[in-house]
Amino acid sequence: MSISDVVRLSFQRSIDLYAELVEELPEAALSMTLPGIPSNSIGEQIWCVVGARESFSRAIAAGSWSGFSCSLTRAGLKEKATVQSALATSGSQVLGVVARIDSYGDEQNHLVVDLLEHELAHQGQLIRYLLGLRLPIPAGWKAKYTLD
After folding, report:
1. In Å, what is the CA distance from 45 to each residue of 77, 95, 120, 129?
2. 148 burial level (CB within 10 Å; 0-12, 13-18, 19+)
3. How many other CB atoms are there within 10 angstroms of residue 51's CB atom?
4. pTM for this prediction
5. HEC string of 22-51?
6. Three-state secondary structure of the chain
7. Cα diameter, the chain
8. pLDDT tens for residues 14-72?
């Protein structure tokens, strides 16, 4: 398996994990924050994932960074169906640009790796939310991160 195949599979697994997470969360969980410590909401964590996917996809296609923006609105990040749609659309954008990874130069490859790191960093943060809020952990997350 080539490194480009590994990268594509890693993104697909990440996209699937986020879809599974939101599918299993109750809608009210999107507004939850960690108690007793400064934190944003689960929805805001996912807003950042969607925005990064959208922004990095544009940057990878263009070959350089062009700024951060997110199609998911403040109101939308509290609505499960809207979040699911934004995750699916942004995931498709990522898979579209990653499909062409074999033709990329150094800058684009760095952007691809930066986006994958971003996806994984938020997964770690969201595990803390699930544990801290005593929310159920989806099976895929349990398997990937060896969580009970």
Report:
1. 9, 21, 12, 10
2. exposed
3. 18
4. 0.96
5. HHHCCHHHHHCECCCCCCCEHHHHHHHHHH
6. CCHHHHHHHHHHHHHHHHHHHHHHCCHHHHHCECCCCCCCEHHHHHHHHHHHHHHHHHHHHHCCCCCCCCCCCCCHHHCHHHHHHHHHHHHHHHHHHHCCHHHCCHHHHHHHHHHHHHHHHHHHHHHHHHHHCCCCCCHHHHHHHCCC
7. 48
8. 999 999 999 999 999 999 999 999 999 999 999 999 999 999 999 999 999 999 999 99
Which residue carries 């997350």 as its tokens? 141
**Cα separations (Å) of 50 from 3, 18, 115, 139?**
24, 10, 11, 22
Q: What is the mean pLDDT of the chain?
A: 96
Q: 15: which 2 tokens?
A: 């996209």
d(CA 111, CA 113) in angstroms, rounded, equals 5
